[in-house]
């Protein structure tokens, strides 16, 4: 066994060296992605169950690399967060989404609220609210047409700081939602203290909601909780008519998911808006 030591050790360092190399390569590619204009946004509609109307869209970032192809966020957001590159990416997304939503308004499309995902890091920087205000002013988008999505772990990281940032965002008039709701470990007390408007029920509860009694119970409980606190409940990852029926019966306000539409390029949103009544 002793003789295997050095060989295994060498194997280890080779594998590590490779992993580090890949990471460094990926990092330098990512570093240049903004200046090379390689990011783009897709938008996924959110549909009101009562009316079938598309009330909003979520902006989801895509990295279009000439060699790697279309890189999904799961493959670069974690690295972007570790390296801090997410700051520039999120601010690019914020500006781009506000500009697009403002252009849709100018084209006379039905009013849409655009939601943008911000990573936890943004809430630890001074001046987030000023940056958001600048994006709104630059684009001419009314504040009520912007929603900011944050996860439970973001607000729980430093609750006092988060509460103050959220209050200053709220003061601008933007809407705030808790993303992936139910997957955090958090106490629910923050919901009372923070100026939240929307709970987005995580896809992990929705996928089996019609077959798993626990998921059904949790989903009902989240909808009830949202309504008790005067918040809207939005179900994520809705894929089937059976899920839609369950959510409708249980009073969920809005749905988002492949059932209605996957995320699409901005040009396709206009077309989608015409079939909003189809749900
Ligand atoms: P998320 O915010 O929870 O976004 C929803 C994800 O679910 C999206 O994945 C969307 O394409 C996917 N999805 C929507 N409907 C369905 C469905 O019916 N079934 C299934 N299986 N999936 C569905 P996407 O676009 O790959 O984004 C993954 C995550 O990356 C997002 O999760 C979000 O956490 C993060 N992300 C995306 N854009 C940004 C961004 O601009 N900034 C930051 N910080 N994070 C982002
Ligand atoms: Ca989201
Ligand atoms: Ca989510
Ligand atoms: Ca997520």
Automatic annotation (TrEMBL):
Question: Keywords of this protein's UniProt record, alphabetized?
Answer: Membrane, Transmembrane, Transmembrane helix
| Keyword S-adenosyl-L-methionine appears in the UniProt entry | no
Q: Where is the EAL domain?
A: 23-277
Task: State what protein this is by name.
Answer: EAL domain-containing protein
Query: Source species, please?
Result: Telluria antibiotica
């Amino acid at each position: 066994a002793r003789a295997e030591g050095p060989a295994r050790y060498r194997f280890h360092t080779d594998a590590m060296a490779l992993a580090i190399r890949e990471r460094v390569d990926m990092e330098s590619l990512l570093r240049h992605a903004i200046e090379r204009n390689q990011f783009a946004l897709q938008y996924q509609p959110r549909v009101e169950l009562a009316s079938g109307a598309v009330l909003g869209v979520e902006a989801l970032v895509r990295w279009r690399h000439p060699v790697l192809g279309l890189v999904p966020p799961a493959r670069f957001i974690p690295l972007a967060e570790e390296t801090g590159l997410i700051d520039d990416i999120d601010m690019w997304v914020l500006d781009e989404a506000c500009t697009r939503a403002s252009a849709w308004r100018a084209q006379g499309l039905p009013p849409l609220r655009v939601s943008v995902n911000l990573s936890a890091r943004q809430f630890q920087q001074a001046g987030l609210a000023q940056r958001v205000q600048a994006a709104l002013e630059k684009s001419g988008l009314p504040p009520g047409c912007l929603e900011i999505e944050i996860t439970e772990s973001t607000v729980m990281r430093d609750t006092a700081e988060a509460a103050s940032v959220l209050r200053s965002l709220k003061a601008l008039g933007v809407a705030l939602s808790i993303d992936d709701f139910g997957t955090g470990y958090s106490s629910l007390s923050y919901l009372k203290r923070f100026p939240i408007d929307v709970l987005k029920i995580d896809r992990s509860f929705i996928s089996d909601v019609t077959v798993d009694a626990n998921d059904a119970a949790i989903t009902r409980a989240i909808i009830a909780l949202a309504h008790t606190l005067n918040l809207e409940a939005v179900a994520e990852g809705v894929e089937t008519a059976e899920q839609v029926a369950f959510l409708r019966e249980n009073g969920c306000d809005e749905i988002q998911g492949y059932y209605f539409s996957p995320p699409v390029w901005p040009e396709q949103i206009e077309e989608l808006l015409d079939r909003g009544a189809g749900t």
